[in-house]
Amino acid sequence: MSFPKNFLWGGATAANQYEGGWQEGDRGIAVHDLITNGTKDEPRRIFCKNDQGDEVTIQMGECIPYGYVGFLKEGYYYPSHQATDFYHHYKEDIALMAEMGFKTYRLSISWTRIFPNGDDETPNKEGLHFYDNVIDELKKHNIEPLVTILHFDMPLNLATKYGGWINRKLIDFYLKFAKVLFERWKDKVTYWITVNEINVLGGYWTLGLASNHRKTGAHSNQGETPLEDAGIKFQSIHHMLVASAMANKMAREINPHFMLGTMCALSGIYPATCHPDDVFGAYEFRRKALMFSDVTCRGYYPNYAQAIFDEYNFKLKMEPEDEKWLKENTSDYLAFSYYRTTAFDRFSPNTTTTGGQQASPNPYLEKTPWGWPIDPEGLRFVLNELYDRYQKPLFIVENGMGNDDILKNNEIHDDYRISYIRNHIKELKKAIEIDRVDVLGYTPWGCIDIVSAGTGEMKKRYGFVYVDLDDLGKGSLKRIKKDSFYWYKKVITTNGEELD
């Protein structure tokens, strides 16, 4: 065996980091449009005000105080407004993807471009027309669209009026949004991801201004402590899990040939030592990430979920039909992101990062300039871990390294990126050839440079194509091929056989 002939090589982006055109085509305001830029040492911010005009500043990932609403503040740069301007460059960018030989491109749909306020009666025709053009352009180049419906995005109106995903009403608004997409592109799109990184606890509830839910009476578990805030996260994610299951059922009724997946952040974790407390501690931390893929792939919360909820003094609120929805409408495949591995150290058990992972250093691994450990062998480990657990096809929809690329004489020599991707593909190949893991495809993250989600920087670049833009949004937006562009093109042309 080698890579399957129909293996889906490609790349991935998110609308809020790539698309721009934030006020064009009757697009509404999304919560992401309120987030400033930052650096690896200085977090991104949201400015908020209450009815009395009192102002507070919160960091990304923190709870927005009750009664406060986010707003744009003069003198600050908001990267999502322009991003790297796919809105005006989509034909050029898709042509570059086609030149690399992409078999698929993972894109996300901006909710506010389709329903500007989220609770609109009818969809926005201009927004639909834009994505019609994008999908038709992809199909013209024989690139399969891989559409993510919800990717760390939300209409600001749904956040301020309803309190975000803590409010169960968002399930209906999401399903209305998803139905429009399924019906519109039922004959053009096969692969769908209902929710991006559904297990990232801060990704949706915070961006949804969830603390406003007291005002709406959506739920009674709001509190002022981190433990109580964790309950909001779990309840919000439960609503997304139910919405995803309901969307799966609806999609299969529209087109039974759809391939439907939910996506999780599932970079791996090791025990720092062979001490039993480290070994079991790593196991417990891993459960906090896998709990949600268990729901989407198996159809139910695992036996240990209640122990995790008890740790946060949280009681999950379910409606009578929720368990049935989850059980009968699981995903066809599991999409996941893999960037690095981390370690569990019993002496620092409360330090966490994406997906409930321990963030302790691993002395055996090199790091990216932003401090992320580089572990290609960990990808093979995770592929086996997930396939052993679920026996469902896997799809690596994010992988890559952020780096400060140097443009000189109109060239970018990014050997470090080639090395990173090459070594991960080698381990992916072993998982397919030796371990017989079923993998649908591989779409490295930020295939054309985009704004960093975590820091809001441009200099933290992932792409095979350089975009002339700095951290404050200044530049020509010119696209320039990096050395990795030509290397990845060869990889795809040879279906992963030539990696050097």
- How much of the sequence is in beta strands? 5-15%
CATH superfamily: Glycosidases
CATH domain class name: Alpha Beta
Structural class: alpha/beta
Percent helix: 25-40%
Count every beta strand, where a strand is a DSSP E run of 2 or more residues. 17
Rg over CA atoms? 21 Å
The largest β sheet comes out as:
8 strands, parallel, barrel
Whole-Å distance between the termini? Answer: 20 Å
CATH architecture assignment name: Alpha-Beta Barrel
Catalogue the unreliable spans. Answer: 205-225
Whole-number count of domains: 1
User: What is the third-level CATH name, the topology?
Assistant: TIM Barrel
Q: Averaged pLDDT, please?
A: 91
Number of helices: 15
Strand order of the largest sheet: 1-5-6-7-8-10-14-15
General form: globular
GO biological process, one term: carbohydrate catabolic process
Family: Belongs to the glycosyl hydrolase 1 family.
Keywords: Glycosidase, Hydrolase
GO molecular function, one term: beta-glucosidase activity
